[in-house]
Amino acid sequence: MSAMAVENNAINLGQGFPDTDGPEDIRQVAADASKEGPNQYPPMMGIPDLRKSTANHNNYFYDLGINWKTETMVTSGATEALAACIFGLIEPGDEAVMIEPLYDCYLPILRRAGGIPRMVKLEPPNWALPYDDIEAAFSKKTKLLVINSPMNPSAKVFSLDELTFIAELLKRYDAYAICDEVYEHLVYDKRKHIPLMTLPGMRDRCVRISSAGKTFSMTGWKVGYSVASPNILAAAAKAHQFLTFATPPNLQKAVAYGLNKDESYFRSISANMVLKRNRLADGLSEIGFDVMESQGTYFLAADYQPLGFKGDDVQFCTYLTREAGVSAVPFSAFYQGDEINNFIRFCYCKDDALLDAALGKLKAYLGKC
Ligand code: PMP
Q1: In CATH, which superfamily holds the domain spanning 2-16+264-368?
Q2: Residue 180 CA: which ligand 1 atom is closest?
Q3: pLDDT tens digits, residue range 264-286?
């Protein structure tokens, strides 16, 4: 869709990246650090500054009691952490429970590791976890579950009840959880992000992954930081050693500085983003979309059927890009099957003026469906 957006000179509300460039003070630290050096291979598990601030951040926000020397790992983005954990923990033939709609890299990495996915499907409008289905997806072959909360693309934040149910299954089947929590600080309307790792019995079963890309709006930096008990991390580190080995030291130094900011900074991220969510959600509702509640992330899901368009979500996104000049992502891209094909994902981490321009274009064209 991004390529089609460029081809058609459309406003790209498809791909999830902010159009600001991240906090200037953090960028300055990176610039100074690259000037001052060192610029040679940093330690494989990350520079001590970033490992310490990762532990402090987890301990401050979630009281996880993380030991920076044995329980933190820096990777080249959350994506590399996901790959390292999956390659480190999965043996060919192991099963992994995955929850649809799902972020695109999980399945190809799992398959490449020889793992077998067991899919559990969440459906709009509530994206509630189907307890019977997830229980049925577990078996004695289950090695791990991948959970993404706040969740891209549904913008769901998993509830304590749902997490408790998952935790019981993990204990019963002696399985691990890979927790993709890159949107941990983008949760709205007084909701709370609860890491699965904080639930009883989960401290040593989970790896909790986050990313500077989302926390500091610098998706191009690809700096990820994970925490897990030493045994899990040791397995992931073996894969990390040959995936990238290390991440640019100047960026690590700058992210360490960023993670040391005080709590108000992290609270302000969601306070700013929720205004953008409201702006886009209100505008789309006015045009006639049925907009789902976006509880967190950069995204919102919208059903376009009330507008009268008869085609599927890919056709609708193609139409939007070519005719209205606005790009979104068809939801069917996030499912294995094609039953859910009347939803599209919009990204709202954009300038207000750009959001308004996109809404203006949509309003002008959608009368003609
Ligand atoms: N997980 C989710 C759910 C994401 O949305 C993204 C980025 N779009 C990532 C992981 C990847 O993060 P990074 O860019 O740090 O690799």
Answers
A1: Aspartate Aminotransferase, domain 1 (3.90.1150.10)
A2: 1
A3: 999 999 999 999 999 999 999 99
